[in-house]
Design goal:
By secondary structure, the chain is mainly alpha-helical. It contains 6 helices and no strands. The chain is extended.
Length: 174
């Protein structure tokens, strides 16, 4: 499929993405059970102690497609477009805080952090992508990074799994 707009994503792809999320949730519970047994059998903690701190454990799964990134970027683009349209009315009909909370959907912590960053940067004329202040960047935007392909110079964290996948793929092509 390659890189495309989220409006071009089929319903099957969305269903598959949700299916993967459900599988990841199930695997998380399996990992929790195995970790509870391992920690209690090794004497690292008791089952009662495990129950106290198990909610603090989380698993970060690698994002294996660009759909989520593309969707988030389009949502942000639409929010910024709406904020731009409301901008002439800020200070008259809408407060800046209301726009940040209700249009940009920022939390109070994000608002505070953003304000700190803005004050630290000071110079608002500096372009985000580099270059000189006031200089038009022009040209097309940079291509998104394809995170579905492994880089050859980075060692895989799961070489046995990679070998099994390659073996299976090789057998399927015969």
């Amino acid at each position: 499929m390659g890189i495309c707009r989220t409006t071009e994503v089929t319903r099957d792809e969305v269903k598959f993405s949700k299916f993967i999320a459900r599988l990841r949730n199930k695997f998380s519970r399996i990992f929790d059970g195995a970790l509870r047994i391992q920690l209690s059998l090794k004497g690292v903690c008791t089952v009662e102690e495990w129950e106290e701190f198990k909610e603090a454990i989380s698993y970060d799964f690698k994002k294996d497609n660009n759909f989520t990134e593309m969707r988030d970027a389009e949502i942000l683009k639409e929010r910024i477009s709406t904020a731009t349209q409301i901008d002439p009315y800020v200070g008259r009909y809408y407060s800046s805080a209301w726009v940040k909370k209700n249009v940009l959907h920022m939390t109070q912590e994000e608002i505070d952090d953003m304000q700190k960053e803005i004050e630290e940067e000071g110079d608002l004329a500096t372009p985000v992508l580099g270059g000189q202040p006031g200089q038009d960047q022009g040209g097309p935007p940079p291509e998104p990074i394809d995170n579905t392909v492994e880089n050859g110079d980075v060692e895989s964290p799961t070489p046995q799994l990679d070998d099994a996948v390659n073996k299976y793929s090789f057998n399927k092509t015969k």
